[in-house]
Amino acid sequence: DKNPDGSLKYTKEGAHSQPRICFHEDITGKEITTTLQTRVKELPNVEIREYTVMTDILVENGICTGILAKNAAGDILKLHAKDTVLATGGIGGLYKHSTNFPSLTGDGLDVAKKHGVRLEHLDYVQIHPTSLYSKKPGRSFLISESARGEGAVLLNGKGERFVDELLPRDVVTQAIEKEMEKEGSDHVWLSFKAVPEETIRNHFPHIYEECLKEGYDITKEPAPVVPAQHYFMGGIYVDHFSETTMDHLYAVGETSCNGVHGKNRLASNSLLESLVFAERAAGKIAGREDEEYESNYDAACCG
Ligand SMILES: Cc1cc2nc3c(=O)[nH]c(=O)nc-3n(C[C@H](O)[C@H](O)[C@H](O)COP(=O)(O)OP(=O)(O)OC[C@H]3O[C@@H](n4cnc5c(N)ncnc54)[C@H](O)[C@@H]3O)c2cc1C
Fold it and tell me: Which segments of 165-232 does DSSP mark as H helices, in order?
């Protein structure tokens, strides 16, 4: 989103002391994905196969040479490639409560493990403090941290605040869980009382609508929230170019572990893991691993 003068708008999320996050309403990821998909479809050298699932990698003499996949008709396909990139996302589908799609079941990790490719920090799983509490089954709706960044506060059953809402996710999650245990409740409340109605309607239109669907008008009353599995910091071990321990096999995005998040990702840093490392993998595959590229990388990421 932009200011009237055309400059980018920034917002705050958990553990941020100043606004530093670019956003688009409350659907930043959708905006990025839609733009990327549009651009990819314009490329003449890219073939997109929908409803096709990667079931294994092809390996010859310890080198990855492509993938095995299954299409909607049940045909098994052998897709050969000089280089293969796993980008199969996180593991939320393995959990009862997660903000991820149920189809994200760590397939890339499973395949990597089967072939002895190194995995790292499989216990580094992030729980998001505020998903909308619902008795309906399926993916939990995330109430973005920027809501708390803009002034929304957490309340217990007595309407009292019990934590600094902008502490890192694990700390806020632990405080919520402790409060729920103390009260014997299955959720706490998120109040938007301090957030101007105009901000709610303009900055959080989807959160407003989703809460309304559950029966809560957040311009007038708090909404029930509960922690849910949200992000996987561990994954397939990769180097600075997103290459795994198997030659010609790369892993990017949430399925990889490049160490940038440590044990606890900060809000919006998944862009570093997905976009930056994907670009670096693409650069290496395209033969751009020259000295200048390496030193730019060191200055930008490791300095
Ligand atoms: C609700 C929500 C809000 C978020 N908000 C933010 C945010 O504001 N800022 C931020 O930085 N991050 C955010 N994140 C995290 C971020 O969206 C993810 O980390 C990021 O999308 C991961 O990108 P990815 O490409 O690695 O995986 P994904 O975007 O999950 O894509 C993985 C793809 O692989 C496909 N796939 C999986 N297995 C197979 C298989 N076997 N064969 C074929 N295809 C397969 C899946 O269907 C999926 O399309 C959010 C996440 C959620 C769930």
Answer: 169-183, 197-203, 205-213
| Ligand 1 pocket at CB < 6 A | 28-29, 53-54, 87-90, 99-100, 103-104, 107, 142, 231, 253-255, 268-271, 274
Instruction: Give the position of tokens 């600094």.
Output: 164
Torsion of the alpha carbons at 245, 246, 251 and 255, rounded to the nearest 10: -70
Residue ranges covered by each domain of the chain: 84-124+233-302, 127-229
- Superfamily of domain 84-124+233-302 in the CATH hierarchy: FAD/NAD(P)-binding domain (3.50.50.60)
Answer CATH for 127-229 from 3.40.190.10, 1.10.1470.10, 3.40.30.10, 3.90.700.10:
3.90.700.10
Protein residue with its CA nearest to atom 11 in ligand 1: 268
- Ligand 1 center from residue 97 Cα (angstroms): 16
Q: How far is the CA of 87 from the centre of ligand 1 (A)?
A: 9
Which residue's CA is the closest to the ligand 1 atom numbered 26? 253
Mind listing the pLDDT tens digit for each residue in 210-254?
999 999 999 999 999 999 999 999 999 999 999 999 999 999 999
Predicted pLDDT at 13: 76
266 CA distance to ligand 1 middle (Å): 16
Catalytic residues: 169
Q: What is the pLDDT of residues 65-81, one digit of tens each?
A: 999 999 999 999 999 99
Of 84-93, 133-142, 147-156, the poorest mean pLDDT is in 133-142
In the chain, pLDDT over 90 holds for what percent of residues? 78
- Indicate the Cα dihedral angle 111, 114, 116, 121, nearest 10°: 70
